Amino acid sequence: MPRIGRLDLPDRTPDLKTASLALKAPAPEDAESLLAIYNEADVLRFLNRTAPLAAATLSALLEQWPAVVASGNRQSFVVHLATSDEVIGMVELDNFDPAAATAEVTIFIGRAYRRNGYGLDALNAVLDWGISELHLTRIDGAVMPDNVASMALLRSAGMVDLGDRTGHTVSGEPLSIRVFSFLPQA
After folding, report:
1. Is the domain covering 3-140 a CATH 3.40.50.300 domain?
2. Which residues pair with 4 in a beta bridge?
3. Separation CA 186–CA 131 (nearest Å)
4. Amino acid 2: pLDDT
5. What is the CB-side half-sphere exposure of residue 68 using CA atoms within 13 A?
6. Cα 73 to Cα 67, 97, 106, distances in angstroms
7. Distance, CA of 45 to CA of 108 (rounded, Å)
8. pLDDT for 3
9. Rounded CA gap, 120 and 114, in Å?
10. What per-residue confidence (pLDDT) applies to 81?
11. Residues in CB range of 50: below 8 A, 6 or more apart
């Protein structure tokens, strides 16, 4: 595990398991399922995407994923149901700040699997892993202020609402976001 600043970043994404889920590194065979979820209208909107992702683009990204992880820029987990291995979403840690030992978390779960506790289960697994294995001191999450469901999810995971911020841009236009932060218990 390479040490970057104060962070111990693995050179490959580990498997994480919960009672109901298996979180695994992205793989080419996940492309079709991820594409369907990623291109859901509300997922596109809340990830600030203006156009659907093309299948070829996603396949190329998944092929390159081991190199992205090895570079220390991102840790991504495809969320599978433990009982069927069906892909239901993705959780990512990125924007690592080695000096401060912080990162940002992003999660999306397919519409058909929401409101079943899977999002909270997956988010808690990644937050716990980030704190215990990567030794992060803070993990932030940013959501659009009208994304009520994601704000509820982040609060349920113990993340603290830090309020609205402006500064992110979409097509050059400022974007207001709501920032949440997860701080490990002392």
Report:
1. no
2. 7
3. 12
4. 46
5. 19
6. 10, 10, 14
7. 12
8. 47
9. 10
10. 96
11. 44, 170, 171
Structure tokens at 21: 């889920």
User: What letter represents residue 118's amino acid?
Assistant: Y
User: Taking a C-beta distance cutoff of 8 angstroms, is the pair 177, 168 a contact?
Assistant: yes
Q: Which helix (H) or strand (E) holds 105?
A: strand 102-109
pLDDT (0 to 100) of residue 48: 57
Question: What are phi and psi for residue 131, nearest 5 degrees?
Answer: -75, -50
Structure token pair of residue 125: 């697994």
Residue (of 108, 90, 72) closest to 30 by Cα position: 90
What's the DSSP call for residue 158? T
First to last CA, the chain: 25
Return d(Cα 24, Cα 85) in angstroms, integer: 10
- C-alpha–C-alpha distance, residues 146 and 32, integer Å: 29
| Residue 128 confidence (pLDDT) | 94
Q: What is the pLDDT of residue 28?
A: 81
**What DSSP letter does each residue of 53-79 carry, written as one string?**
PPHHHHHHHHHHHHHHHHTTSEEEEEE
Cβ neighbours of residue 125 under 8 Å, at least 6 residues apart? 16, 17, 18, 21, 23, 77, 91
Name 172's Cβ contacts closer than 8 Å, sequence gap at least 6: none
Residue 167: per-residue pLDDT: 64
Closest CA to 46 of 180, 177, 184, 179: 177
